[in-house]
Amino acid sequence: MKKFIRKARWAKEIHIVLDNLSAHKTKAVQDFLTEHPKVRFHFTPTYSSWLNQVEIWFSKIQRDVIDRGVFTSIADLARKIKKYIQVYARSAKPFRWTYTETRRRIIGNVVEVEN
Q1: Residue 5: pLDDT over 90
Q2: What is the three-state SS of the chain?
Q3: In a domain, 105, yes or no
Q4: Total domain count for the chain?
Q5: Is 80 contained in some domain?
Q6: Is the same domain home to 61 and 83?
Q7: pLDDT 10s digits, 50-108
Q8: Is 97 a domain residue?
């Protein structure tokens, strides 16, 4: 990370998006942020990350286009993905994702496990 910050010394601020993993909130990480005040961490919401939405979307493309497809070239693959997106956009609805594992909940930096 320090090597990256040196390469980006021209930047006024460096914004990094991370998941809510507790390892990203340790004292060592806080010390790092204190040493590098232009670095800002942004944490995705627990269990409802927008990244989940992106992963679902790419998974759909993988299953619906790539896994079932026969492609004569990279250009052919790109054309078929673009066509899929156009058709999909006509009836697209937001993905609804909910966390259903009621026996495991993360509260702060603690994982509660019901037995």
Answers
A1: no
A2: CHHHHHHCCCCCCEEEEECCCHHHHCHHHHHHHHHCCCEEEEECCCCCCHHHHHHHHHHHHHHHHHCCCCCCCHHHHHHHHHHHHHHHHCCCCCCCCCCCCCCEEEECCEEEECC
A3: no
A4: 2
A5: yes
A6: yes
A7: 677 788 888 999 999 999 889 999 999 999 999 999 999 999 887 676 666 666 655 55
A8: no
